[in-house]
Amino acid sequence: MDDHLHLEDPGAILTASEFMKALERMGIGLIITNPNLPDNPVIYVNQGFTRMTGFEAEEILMRNCRCLQGPDTNEEALKIVKQAQLEQRAETVTLKNYRKDGSYFWNQLTISPVFGESGELLYFIGLQFDMTQEVEEREKSSLRMRELAFFDPLTGLLNMSRFKLELERELQEGHHCAIIRINIDRFRYLNESYGDKAGDSLLLEAAERMKRLIGDDGILCRSFADDFIVLLKSQDCSRYTIHNQALMLAEGLHKPYFIRNEEVRLSFSSGISMYPEHGEEGPMLLNYADLALKKSKQAGVGEPQWFQYSLLDEIHKRIEIEKKLPKALEHQEFELYFQPKGSIRSTPSLAGLEVLLRWNDPDQGMVPPMEFIPIAEENGFIIRLGEWVLRESCRVAKQWQDEGYPKVTISVNVSAVQFRHPQFIDVVENALRDSGLEPCYLELEVTETMLNDPVVIKEKLERLRSLGIKISIDDFGTGYSSIHYLKTLPVDILKIDKSFVQETPLSAQDSTLLVSIIQLGKSFGLTVLAEGVESKSQLEFLAGSGCDLIQGYYYSRPLNRAAMEQMFKDSMDKGLIAET
Known about the structure:
five-stranded antiparallel beta sheet, eight-stranded mixed beta barrel, alpha/beta
């Protein structure tokens, strides 16, 4: 074998070389063109080229290799190759080439010039690598990245970024449209009760229902978690039509869902804004629909709420309250009121007190708790405010005991934000220590919805119970809590929400339900208290049903400190103080 390379006969020499055999085994295509002949024709191809392109050697020789190009071959890449040939230098590009049968493949082409001994250009050698799999996987990855950038990964709906682009497009075209923001009420508690997987399946089912109901009349977005946005583009964009479509969505979403063969019904709140009636800019319309959604949640009736400009006044009022809260605490504008608890007898006797918070604003007078407590919880001020309430409650209770008033339990409401704070136990211990109040005279009220996080809550409840503090569940019956949690968590008192009492005993259904809840609490060895008792007939029904304690206007309205001290005196004179 002649080891000397004669470039005048490249085919014969390369075919005989070990290098050529290696290229064949690697599946690499090799092509040689002669730039010294017209149109730079192909003068040699190997078997790898033939397998890659489907063209036999005799079909390609003495032709320009543009026969591999097609409608989607990148023109910019071709210009790069031509420029490299003109400059007689090496270059690598990736081209979409076409086989003889018309199918395509991604060709990573590396060309390199071959020069003679005197420096003259003899040939161009091209190596071809089939990169189809790598390129398509990269394109799939890129497509997936685009999907993640524009679509919600769980439901496949548009995400907020993409939705805003679609909204702007509609507004620029001047189409009348409406925005409906939809939120699942108390979804977090349901998600915690059944688990994330079940929660995701509910969100997916809700999304599918909305897609079916909206059809081609709108664009649907999952903005975050349990919050959805609908852009309705109906030709008839009247308030009547939009409201009916919102009601249709609410009805479809309210139909039962099934988790582990258990029927679950969800409630939804929704808020609506319209273009151009309420504004001409996308961010403004989204904010207005959000304000209406919050109003819907506050109303709690499941009816879609329309944006009204009066809601802006409420926002300004909220901002003003947020500014005032820290100063109100500093200037001692907050005051404790007390709601007496009565043990059930023909004449109820005083069995304890629930602390209620009032804010006496120098400008507005008494601000209702429902106006400032939710704001304090949302902005975190409830941590400071709740600590003040706890410390002041313990201080007043101990002072009353020192002054000779009855030693009754005083109960303090604890928000979820407070309870989850890492220093909460320390705050309680400090309040007891600084006041000197014995722990057995302090009761902490937690809401039923907090029970849906049993891992977090159980340890803290057990620590509080170990101190001698009583624990009660407030507003029982209004959440999603499992009876299992009620059975396993360290709880002393079950407070039945007033909604179960107000129609008793006139409503047979409500009366039966109320008795069932009382029996449930008693079966777990709990003290049962009914809230919202306003009549003698309700008291008598509860007494006959085994209830232990009552609260409500029939026994006493909330009292300020002076009025509470007078009730102490009257109850002591009449012997109406229950043993604790």
